[in-house]
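TODO from last week: model dTDP-4-dehydrorhamnose reductase.
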Amino acid sequence: MRVLVTGGGGMLARDVVEACRTAGWTVTAVDRAGLDVTDPAACTRVVADAVGAGDLVVNTAAWTQVDAAEDAEPQAFAVNAVGAANVARAVAAVDARLVHVSTDYVFDGLADTPYAEDAPPAPRSAYGRTKAAGEWAVAALAPRHHIVRTAWLYGAGGSSFVRTMARLATERDTVNVVDDQRGQPTWTADLADAVVALVREDAAPGIYHGTSTGEATWYDLAREVFRLLGHDPDRVRPVGTDQYPTPAPRPAYSVLGHDRWRREGLPLLPRWDDALARAVHDVVGGPSA
């Protein structure tokens, strides 16, 4: 199988490339210089050159600057919605398959039980609105699609909360971390393996939630990073979101349900703390450390 990965310079994309190559697939990765997804002609050309019928495109290209999107929603929309539509249309034209990466920000974060895959989107931020629009475009334009929502990503290929906590553990006596936002820390390598499984098993088109199982707050995650790296976790102090106001509202509850994986007979991603134990030293020591 031939695979095209857009947004190829990103943290998740790097692990997707590695997982696809490990699966024995031929991979082409393009960063923004290689493909501007806001250019429909470029999408048509690059997709047609890289893949054909039955092949795969993994679209990780996105505007991910959540706070900046509040003042630049048209620009974020151009990438996250129009760009997704351009890629989806190009994929459909060659009868390839599409895995499109989305986000927990399509939900309002006000729930107290995990969001199901078919829960109605209700984004509260510009970033969430543009990603929700991208999901709609993919579903409308690419019949052979998987929309994979993820959240709280960390990996060896880029900056992340995990790497920041590891650095602060060596720089500060104590660290204040938010304890009233709850989600699912997810290792990009685990998500990349799940994407490969989704495609290899020819799972039904639709929406899947690509997050680790279990749940934690940012405070829980920071304490576990400290512990795994041999630091005293009690140096992490819990604070409320109100102590760190941001232009874009953060979801208080970002836990996503995984029923679709179960229905398709596919394994769930590992628990967040088990994944972190396997990942943390590689993540901390990875590129840009």
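Done. The longest helix spans residues 73-93.
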